[in-house]
Amino acid sequence: MAGGKETPRQKMIGMMYLVLTALLALNVSKQVLDAFCAIEENMQKAAMTHLDRGNQAIDDLKAETTDKTNPEKVKKVKMFLEQIKKIDGKTAVLIKQIDDLKETLLTKSGEKITDGKESDAKAREFLRWKKYDPADPLRPTRFNLLAVSAKDQYDVPMEVMIGPGAEPNAPSASSDGMKLWKAFNQYRVDLLNLTGSYKDGEKRFTCNVKDINNHKDNADLIKKVTAMFDSQKVNPEDKDELITLYCNLTKQEEVSASAEGDTDTKWHWVGKTWDHSPLVAAIASLTSLQSEILAARAQAIRLIKAKITTGEYSFNKVEAIAAGPDIVTQGDEVNLLVMMAAFDSDKQPEIRNISGGSVSEIKNGQATIKANAGGAGDMRISGEIGVRKKSGDMQWKPWEKTIKVMGPSGSISLPELSILYEGYENIVEAVASGYDDCSVSGKGVSLSPTKAARAKGGKTFIARPAKGTKEATISLTGKNSITNKSAPLGTFTFKVRRLPDPSLLYKIGASKLTVGYPPEFPLNAAKLNYTVTSWKVSIAGAQIAPIKGNGSSLNGAATGLIGRAPGGTTIVIEVRYNGGGRMNAFTSAVVKKP
To answer: Which of 284, 352, 474, 560 could link 40 by a cystine bridge, Cβ 3.0 to 4.6 Å?
Structure first.
């Protein structure tokens, strides 16, 4: 830009552009650093909000100890207050450890920690607006990062948090960052175990979690944590919130070294967080941790508080609800479940994760779900319903409804043609109108479900009459699977007949011999497995010896004989066959060659 054959004026203009670019870069850097100060300030305020939410829940519990009319409840409240006291002790230690780290980073960076009130006219000049107070051990120190001189200094944060000369992928075990990492993970274990372990009446619940610090993504983390809690002896009502609490306090231990997703190079969370981190950014990261810790503490306290009737939910209306069976049959006894549902008309429930239907309307504390009934059988509609607590958090509960869908049915019978064939797999379809299930029994006939019925739960059977039977009966019984009541629906009589003799089906020019029935015959001959075992071909009136063979295919000599015969010749084919309850049976065909 300022070299080559440029004129002095062009060189001067080029240099001015370089200076201007540098000034712009400096200005952007200052804006970025000031942004970190603003982020840290917001995180401090968020931490105070979480602290106050937890404290308010404790105050609500303490108010319950004055209830002299319910000593058992007071005893339970005091037990949980002791549990919360242990949680606060663990929380205070970690909050103080992080506060000490902040002061270490500031002092080692050459900052002079000056104290003053946020309300002072010169508040911006003071580095610390509120000291750590042992009498209020959960309230973090209130820093003012805008008063920091060396905002962009990053050597000290790396030395303190990662370790002198240590690499981001392998922070020193003695570094303050690794000490914080271990303390943070231990706090997660202590918080979960204290929150999930307690005695409620005769039931004792125990939580004993372990570290899960590596996962592919958030879904994988939830899957791993859920699997861990599946083996825990925790209160089932606490499980979902305990899983959320654990996940909220989980950091990925090994992270990609590149923002573009360099999966080959892995850095430790400590190295990724504080490598070349400006001083104000390093402190903002620590404040963010304090905010997360206090948020988890508030969540744990609210979970404990919910075990006592301290008004987690608000209700201002009640509604009568009657629920009953979805299928009834004439003569059945009907039982209805009638109840009063309490709800807050200002906080209607919410529905999510619906399977099999959609929300039609939500009012009066109830959600109306609409769905279209498909084929006959079970139709399952499920989802989750949530109601908002006074704290603003949503409480979600899963629900599921199974509806029996009855297919429209009817039948027309032909009494004169009610026949079952001996030696044949007769197909019988049972229909029990008004019932979602049915069964059949037979006399003089055996009944078994078809393969398709076994796979799909249908009511189609194979009827096999007993040998020598002249008449068989089939009885039908309907069943309501919800009420578990059955009723006989009738007995049906069928004539039993022997299968008619099959014929040899042959056309001139074919080499394959088939035994069966003509197309107009109503039965499926393929199910009878007719098989030709031997054959004989002769020319009527000719002095030619018949040609014989085994199997179901004509050989070359036989097809040659038929092929050489002149038009109008009568050809006789005789076969022996097996199948349809017959062994070595005889049939024949007489065809005239065109």
So the answer is: 284
